[in-house]
Amino acid sequence: MAATPTPEHVERVVIENCSIATVDADDTEYASGHIVVAGNRIESVGAGRTPEGLENVVRRVDGTGHLATPGLVNTHHHFYQWITRGLATDHNLFDWLVALYPTWARIDEPMVRAAAQGSLAMMARGGVTTAMDHHYVYPRGSGDLSGAIIGAARDMGVRFTLARGSMDRSAKDGGLPPDFAVETLDGALAGTEATIDAHHDPSFDAMTQVAAAPCSPFSISTELLCQGAELARRKGVRMHTHGSETVEEEKFCHELFGMGPTDYFESTGWLGDDVWMAHCVHMNDSDIAAFARTGTGVAHCPSSNARLAAGIARVPDMLAAGVPVGLGVDGTASNESGELHTELRNALLINRLGAHREKALNARQALRLGTYGGAQVLGRAEQIGSLEPGKLADLVLWKLDTLAHASIADPVTALVFGAAAPVTLSLVDGRPVVEDNHLITADEEAIARATRDEARRLAQVAAGA
What we know:
The chain is α/β, with parallel strands linked by helices. The chain has helices at 93-104, 109-124, 145-156, 185-199, 222-235, 247-257, 261-267, 285-294, 302-307, 315-321, 341-351, 363-377, 411-417, 444-464, and strands at 12-21, 29-38, 41-47, 57-62, 66-70, 72-73, 128-135, 159-166, 208-214, 239-243, 275-279, 297-300, 325-327, 395-399, 423-428, 431-435, 438-439. It is 35% helix and 21% strand. The termini are far apart.
């Protein structure tokens, strides 16, 4: 094993002359400042030019006309859906699931790898440095799907959490998935544990982590929830699922369990500071208080919520109560753009349609949701999510001096309210992933061809089933 470089020998990258939004606890910002990256850590952040005398500077970046922020953190996604985009476009959640499950149940390893590459490429080129995937469809004989997803993330060079999902409640048991789309209880638990054992890295600078993630109340048994929680806590990993997404889910839980989703989750051990849930649109005051009391996090997916007509999540009320909230792209079968900048903007705009109107969220709160809030939700706020000395060097340099943003004086307002900004540089673990608005870790054209081919093959397989 190679020796760890001593501080005086570590290679440094210097970024200067840029605006900086650190998203630290004080929301510190610099109109013109510098960032020094040493190895895979942020060494210093401050106003003005970098101090003289730094050793082993291998690269200097002039950030004039740019804003530096922490890398975006995506907290909810379904990568495999990249190859079923543009289908069932006028459906609510339950009808959409029923329409697409028969196709999704035909996926295999090459399809999943191509879809993961497409999903990751779209996010990474748009400023995401930490991604996650909630994968819960494991058809028998489909190959090593978890390994394919993790391999795609490793090749892309992004930090990654795989939420190893599962379903064991099929249509014959009162659930939504067809019978051939689910696992057995024992199979789901064994598959989750094997994935944790093979891939989870608990270290500070981990590039790959695993969470236990049964899919949703209407596709999993109570036994899978309870035993899944026990497994996750025994293994020391986080827990993720869908919760309170639609009024239909609320009705389903009352009819099947005699209580609403939040009470049901609490009864099965699924509230806690090691848990985050996607959507949480239909939350009453008691639900929000329970999340705040237990430290349960939320992945807010505004574009998907709108696409499926689920409703407007009470994000301002969650934040006021102290609930950790991050942003999620969600699967690209319900958010065809597939990138997180859209969620910064839509989180702000859609929440202003709610009860709080123009006071719902501002630009800096939206940026915090997409960076530090996401880090909180994934349990990595000590390592990523803000630009502070000692944290991992996951950061983005956004170009804001083009026509799209040139007349907006405030850079954070330009980033959040404006059009998607080009990414001049994205670093993950101190290594470049995007340069001059192009991925340097992957061939975008090759990925586009592969995903197009696999989407066509999946459609053919599903049609012939």
